[in-house]
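Re: the request from the purification team.
They wanted to know what the chain is likely to look like in 3D before they choose a buffer screen. I agreed to run a prediction and write the result into the notebook, where they can find it.
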Amino acid sequence: IATETQLLRLLGNTPLQVDVTLLHTATHEAKHTDAEHLLNHYETFEAVSQEKFDGLIVTGAPVEQMDFEEVDYWPELTRIMDWAETNVASTFYICWGAQAGLYYRYGIPKYRLPAKMFGVFEHRTRAPTERLLRGFDDTFMATHSRHTEIRRADVEKVADLRILAESEEAGLYIVGTRDGRHLFITGHSEYDPLTLKGEYDRDVGRGLPIDVPRHYYPGNDPGRTPLVRWRGHAHRLYAN
């Protein structure tokens, strides 16, 4: 529900009036979202498979440390991605969704990181004339929260793909197809001010090995209020 609210807030702050249809996978029983909420607000793929859409957002999911084929809804998700080729104008993949899309479409693997990529990082635009990056500064901030990564060398082997933005510290951030129909975002520009704090506090409470999110708390002190330095980029990205 938090992710849904974050995305709707960003879409709602653009000049466009956006009519949103929420989908959940029929082949997966959600453990973190109330079943009644899904029943009241979400559709399954079968209910919309005959419709056309201007855009599709494939969100992240807490399954990135599993092989793609081990995810119980992987066959259903690949059906949706195939359907989108002829029923959706453009698709926007977020975090694990970006890794899933690059793997399914191009065979690009993901790699386990030695420690979670966690925090707010500086990025640089690599294609300043790209329509998606209109109004971006040369450098901008964006959040990441992931245990795996995709690598530049693998993306550069695919002629259909362009690297649009990346970070020296966090790696690739925005990858797009040359026709602009597929956009792969490895981070979480949609995060609220306290989302990283919530993830950090949760993992600390569970006794999990987790570092303080980088470049997030003033003085790297979790006792202080985080600084929001990615909001402007998030609104520009979604507006474009």
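For the purification team: The radius of gyration is 18 Å.
Please add any questions underneath this entry.
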